Amino acid sequence: MKQSPKTTLRLITVAWPFVLIVILQTAFATFSLQVTSSLRAFVTGESLWSKGQHDALYYLNRYAESGNRSFVDRYHRAMAVPLGDREARLALEANPPDIDAAFDGFLKGGNHPDDIPNVIWLFRYFRWLPVMEACIRDWRTAEGVLMQLLPIGEAIDTSRHISESDRRDITRQLDEINALVTPLTKRFSDRLGEGTRQVQSVLFISNVAMALLFVVLTVWRLNTFLTHRRRIEAQLSFSANHDDLTGLPNRRLFEERLARALDGAEAGHALMFIDLDQFKAVNDNGGHAAGDELLRRVSRDLGNAIRGTDLLARLGGDEFGIVLPKCSPEDALRIALRLREITEAIDFVWNGHRYSISASIGMVHLGGTSYTLQEALRAADIACYMAKEKGRNRVHVYETNDAAQTQFTVNLNWVQRLHRALEDDRFQLFSQSIAAVGGNGEAQEHCEILLRLEEDGKLLAPGAFIPAAERFGLMPAIDRWVVRHSLDAIGRHGAAAGTYSINLSGLTLKDDTFMPFLREALRRSRVPADVLCFEITETSAIENLDEAIAFMNAMRAMGCRFALDDFGVGMSSLTYLKRLPVDYVKIDGSFVRDMLTDKADWTTVEMINQISHLAGRRTIAEFVENKEILAALEKIGVDYAQGYAIARPVPFRPEASAPALRHADVA
Question: 428-651 belongs to which CATH class?
Fold first, then answer.
């Protein structure tokens, strides 16, 4: 696995002191071995030199005493050692040094060939040391005295017979030479031994110093590593517990502090949630850079306005939380009101544009009631939601006996349940047939796809959860779930003909991503778009008329059809009927149900049917519960009927080839 240059550079930066000290230690150890080996070779050479000069004197003395010429040969062999060493010394002292001659000289001196390079190295590069200088000086002095043996040896060699008086004279000269050379030889040996010990001491101290340096460096680097690690751990801990943008504590640290505060809630702590009201406008118009700068500004101003013991945290997005330890309800409310005023007073200008800022603040006092962490967070969340629901830019104090708050809590519970239902696919699709009044209608299946929620083995009707889904913006996600699963079912059963009506919410009409989603779902399921008929309510269409018209035209261009649902609830909407590109008008069931007993309802149904036909739209009557209503609708001329008189809702099972639907007889 290849390492990046940056990683390699970091490794080198960390490891170079250790690499350097290892190299230095290795080099110094090698040098120490070289010096020690050279000293040993030099001492050995000195020993051979001393023995050679001693033996030369001894054999000449024996010759003088006995006249036996065999001692003369031994003398020459012994004398060859100091003479060879002298030859080597002179070769090394020459300029330039003659290394080969020095090698031959030391070899004649009886030195081992493997030791000679070490002796030469020590002589050449360390002769300047005082101890080496003294040794070589003694060597040179003793050598000068020893050279006095050469004339004596030459005289003996040239003379065939030595008289008694000559031998006595030789003995006298030898005694004089011995008296001179012996102290010099001893001093040479002593100084060399002393020098060897000094060098060994220096090497030992140097090695100990190098080892201590290595230990010190290791401790220093380890301390550096530990310091760096502690700094990184501190940074990681700070990053894990603080927001990168504002530097405030994040949700994790906030909840930890709140949990500790709840352990002493009897002291009277308070909790606040703050949500910026116009943050999305700043982000959309000024960009994320503007939003980030606003968050930093709000964080700074809020932080300066709270007490030193309070904890301000950014919980995410434009949401902030504050834990106020030991704070009475009155003081907490006063602080909350001041924070609202401070936020509203922020003069935020970005790229020449001035933005108005405000905050919705939810507050809950934690004293007197035992709260768990989740209960406290939920209470503050609900209080913040209520501040927004009541008009924003206000403070709402959480009260357990607040009826509106209780209802809001119920709806908020639905949010979690609906999220789980979407994640776990706990919704189920049902369908209810739509039949042509009088039986002269379409040959293919025509039905409305209905939604149910299964919880604990029970099916819940849309009326139980749709209000909460609409209030908290979950309808687009639910609409997509219905479309996706409906198309999967239609495509799986090969039902490529007919009409399948699917309800869409007003929020989906504003969703720019819905049409790309629908195209992809149609492509994946291979269902033709013309089998789909989307139902939108009269109210959502009128509230967002231009957006609804643009949305419907774009969908119709794909081949989809539309039905205007719950028509007639707002009579003023009749004037918009011609503008809306719908295929069907569904007469609201509240008029159909009682049309036999209420003349006004009959008239309304009749009027809606006539106006729809004049506008070129077909009509569908809802809540057709018996055959009498069905007969009345046939008399009026309504095109289609839907209700228990036709069929009850059943699990959605598309038919591959459905016969013409006829109304069922109702007993």
Answer: alpha beta
Instruction: List all residues 6 or more positions away from 400 whose beta carbon is below 8 Å from its beta carbon.
Output: 369
The one-letter amino acid at 501: S
Token reading at 136: 């070589």
Which superfamily, per CATH, for 251-400? Reverse transcriptase/Diguanylate cyclase domain (3.30.70.270)
pLDDT digits (tens, 9 = 90+) for 189-231: 776 677 677 777 777 777 788 778 778 877 887 788 788 888 8
561 conformational bin, left if phi > 0, alpha if psi -120 to 50, beta if neither: beta
Overall average pLDDT of the 289-301 stretch: 92
pTM over 0.70: no
CB 156 within 8 A of CB 66: no
Residue 91 pLDDT more than 70? yes
List of residues 6+ apart from 493 with CB closer than 8 A:
653, 654, 655, 656
For residue 483, what pLDDT is reported? 96
Q: Helices (H), strands (E): how many in the chain?
A: 22, 18
Look up residue 612 and give its two tokens. 């729809």
Instruction: Pick 8 or 322 by higher pLDDT.
Output: 322
* 3 state SS of 94: coil
> Residue 638 pLDDT more than 70?
yes
Do 451 and 462 meet the contact criterion of CB atoms below 8 Å apart?
Answer: yes
